[in-house]
Amino acid sequence: MTLLLTRDALMARRASVRQDLEPLGRSLRADLEPLLAQPELTVPPEKARLTRTGGRCPVHGALLEFDPSSPRAHTCPDCGVVYTEEEHYRWWIMNYQLWLAERSVHAAALGVLTDDGASLDLARCILRGYADRYLSYENKDNVLGPTRLFFSTYLESIWLLQLACALSLLESEDEDRSVGAVVRERVLVPSAALIAQYDEGTSNRQVWNNAALLAAGALLGDDAMVHRAVHGRSGLAAHLTGSLLTDGTWYEGENYHLFAHRGLWYGVQCCSTLGIELPDDGVKRFEEGFATPLLTALPDFTFPARRDSQYAVSLRQWRFAESCELGMARTGDARLAAALMRLYDENGPARPTGRGRSTAEAERNVPAARLTRADLGWKSLLCAALRLPLSEEPPLQSAHLPAQGFAVLRRDAGRVYVALDYGTPGGGHGHPDRLNAWLVVGDARILEDVGTGSYVERTLFWYRSTLAHNAPLIDGRSQPYGSGRLEAWDERGAAGWIEASFALVPGRVRATRRLIVMPDYMIDELEWNGADVATIDVPFHVEPDPDPQHRWIPAPLPEPAENGGGFGFLHDVQRLDGPSPGTFTVNVRGRSVRAWTHCDRPHEWYRAVGPGPPGSPERAFVFVRAAAQSGRVRSLWSWSPAVTASRIDGEGCAVELGEERHLHQLVDGRWSITLHTQGARSSIDLDGRVARATGDDAVEDAASAAPAPPRHVLAPGRPFVMELGKRHYRRSEEPWETAGAPGATLRIAASRVSVDLDIDVHKRDPYFAPPRPDNPLDNEDPDINSDGVQLYVYLPDSHAYASWILVPVTDSTEVRVRSRESAGSPVALETDWRSTTDGYRIRCRLARGARGLGVDRDFMVNVVVNEMSRDRERRRGQLVATGSNEEWVYLRGDREDTRRMLAFEIVDV
Ligand SMILES: [Zn+2]
Ligand SMILES: [Zn+2]
């Protein structure tokens, strides 16, 4: 049985690998030398552990270097300090196990293709080592799904996939079967069973779960497992046709694309070896996906640092070269050939590629390096084309990715990059930066997005503010999280147009930004329209060159300027004396760009110093501020000396390029450009407006109203009683039955003065955590990892919510309370507890009338019972009064969906 290549293909490849790919084989062999030289294999006995501090430099948050030969000493790449604490070791284990698993398939591929007995022995030794130990790791205390070695299921999937591929390569040699038998019994069967429990739907992580189940299922001859991995509801086929967009991008955005796409490669490759058919349309998207990272790449061959992305990550990494090679081998796509030409040119800095420390597919980014084909990985040894065609580099094209809401307009054969980021902000790692504008000329980043620095530094709040972007904000606050929408997109010859809008205040203020790009310049128009007067700021993260025409005078921060809006990071604030700079010049990396500006409402220009891109010193930038119900900030940016003058005003924009003159105007929703050249006149009409019915704004901006839950009646003497059990249980590793079958009786009663909740929990040996000042595991409240109750109440007076985490204090009737209010003054809660014969009981009393509670209106509440055991560090599960819907408890913290509540009508008799 083989997984990634048929046996025939594998045998046919042997001779050619020894010739055409000989340098690659040699360098992959060199990576194995340290392991081959070891008398015994090191396999850590502990499970990997995720903590807040593990694996990061405590001083400034950089990820510590991973060195497989150094379990107890970890160097910070930035400050060079070596850390030896236990939490770093436990983090290192994750990397090490993945690294070691990958070495098994690396050694097996090399061994089979180059007839290298020592490598084959090493692969067998790693597989046997894991067969001996796998079941000794406990499936417990995980962060994201069941797993033995790790803390998240997808990591175990990546690990298992490496072992399965290694085993299939060894078995292609058709000899000793003893390794296979023991690996199947002690690793493949139990690990696949554990992975199969946890279906992550359309998450990029499920790609890896599928690949692991497909590989394990094939080796086990388990057709049902294979079928589910490929054709299940969240199987490979569904991901190919539903989660890859038509342009080949993984739907979660370019941050996740390469990771998900690499996982899909294993699945597609296995299916073709095993003769399993996949939908043509899906395979087409997958093949397009090899070139996707090139669509939005910056001219200097780095990724745009959108959202929480790392800043200026280069495509010049061996892993990306390997992705292009694997794509070339399948499709011969000229874009990939061109990208490879570029990756293999002499421009990259000569430095180690980091391949020897590769942690299977859960890699982290490494600095750009000069690459050759000898730097590729073991997958290339198996699958890359033996020779690459010489290729002409086709110029990079403009690209509009509507599903992500990101449009890139390229000019000057790809050297000029203009983009508008308007679509979905991108989940938990998204930023409130809708309508962020980009302008990059060669390696000069004029307007861009700098992503995020360290999660543990205070500047995180800067990078996650609107003010840190070239995006508009209102009343000194960051934008709300929401998606913008496309208004127009068109590109005809030299002229391109992208326009999108975003509700800065849903239902009240909408901003529209349009960028028009010509070969020598770009026009940027930001327009806002509101129901009332609002203060708008439009930041441009450029520092104008000193100009005697501009007099900047020291000024206080203009009000309003909320801390949460990023203003708290600014200092040396100055205001322009006079209305507008008119024009200014900026110089970035020797590139001079001239800007002409105009605002049609009374306004002021500010200059301030704030954090620079991650890893760079502070820098100055400017923002223009106006207070009005509606208005427009327009600017023209030129990177070319061809533009000699420009006039920009409330009506339109006139640009002079020597003898040539361009007139730009918005006419009936179309962008019209009239060109006058030496007496001749021509025009370009850009017409890409998205049709929309009037009134759509209100519908789209209105807060989505949740369907009203069924109401129960509460009357004096008629309490509401509910038994919580199996169907209310949100599990972690163990299902309800083996978690001790916990239950609770919930009683809710109303009197004239109060609503009383009585939560009678039935479970053996409850564990009430002592007070802990902070949580070493993560950013959640430490009290969620205890037996206790989370209570949620709707506050009618402000449409807000109050919530409490309640933990009984041992040897007293007191309850430790942490409360949280989404708005308004705190709600008083009286509470006490006592132990009972079969558990414990918490009582809560809420006064009626306070914050509108229980007055003429619905009373809405949710109760969640946390369930813990003494031998754990993370909670085991939860009983949820509104039902568990077969959910898992992972990563929920104390967050509950406030649309899921029990609703009561209180009737006073
Ligand atoms: Zn450091
Ligand atoms: Zn951002």
Provide a short characterization of the protein structure.
This protein is an alpha+beta fold.
Give the topology, please:
Elements: H1 7-19, H2 22-37, E1 74-75, E2 82-83, H3 86-114, H4 117-133, H5 153-172, H6 178-197, H7 204-220, H8 223-231, H9 236-243, H10 254-274, H11 280-288, H12 292-296, H13 318-331, H14 334-343, H15 378-383, E3 399-401, E4 406-411, E5 416-421, E6 436-441, E7 444-447, H16 460-463, E8 473-474, E9 485-492, E10 495-505, E11 509-517, E12 521-540, E13 552-554, E14 571-576, E15 583-588, E16 591-599, E17 603-610, E18 619-638, E19 645-648, E20 653-657, E21 660-667, E22 670-677, E23 680-686, H17 696-701, E24 711-714, E25 720-724, E26 729-730, E27 743-750, E28 754-762, E29 788-795, E30 800-808, E31 815-821, E32 829-836, E33 839-847, E34 859-867, E35 877-880, E36 902-906
Parallel strand pairs: 24-36
Antiparallel strand pairs: 1-2, 3-4, 4-5, 5-6, 6-7, 8-12, 9-10, 10-11, 11-12, 12-18, 13-14, 14-17, 15-16, 16-18, 17-18, 19-20, 20-21, 21-22, 22-23, 25-27, 26-35, 27-28, 28-33, 29-30, 29-34, 30-31, 32-33, 34-35, 34-36
Helix pairs in contact: 2-3, 3-4, 3-5, 4-5, 4-6, 5-6, 5-7, 6-7, 7-8, 7-10, 9-11, 13-14
The structure holds zinc ion (2 copies).
